[in-house]
Amino acid sequence: MSEPTPPPPAAGAPGTIRRDGTVLGFDVGSRRIGVAIGSSFGTHARAIAVVDVHGNGPDWPAVERLIKEWRPDGLVVGDPLTLDGQDQPNRKRAQGFARQLRERFKLPVVLVDERSSSVEAARRFAVERAEGRKRRRDAATLDAVAAAVIIERWLSCPDDATPVS
Fold first, then answer.
1. Which pTM was predicted?
2. Beta strands in 1-152 (DSSP E)
3. HSE-up of residue 114 (Cα within 13 Å, Cβ side)
4. Engineered SS bond to 148: which of 4, 29, 45, 70, CB 3.0-4.6 Å?
């Protein structure tokens, strides 16, 4: 007889995101932050927005509007590493953004390895463009597509994420 499956972590538990919940994902850049939505009810995430970054940081009111609109159970932030797993300059920015998300919105936040997510996002965009579903002017949403890739990585391997506390 097999052991019963334990219930998913409760929402709000430090560093954990309900595995049966909805998440917003973020791809943090120096000029823009791509945002996507996803849930465990599917294996795909959807690009929803791009938030501008100014000299004083992200457009926090825009982030707050997205959180109020989508009411996620947790937040997933891409952790930029080099291909060999080392730090890169944008990593401190992404980690700082993740800590600020946790402090501001009191939701569980995790970091997910985002290596090659931009490459995958560009590939998806090219396919959609070739199929006539995207236009060149839609390229500004590429960061949001990368955020969708980040969510999909979390959905496939949530235990590989690093909780932000």
1. 0.81
2. 22-28, 32-39, 46-54, 57-58, 74-79, 109-113
3. 30
4. 45
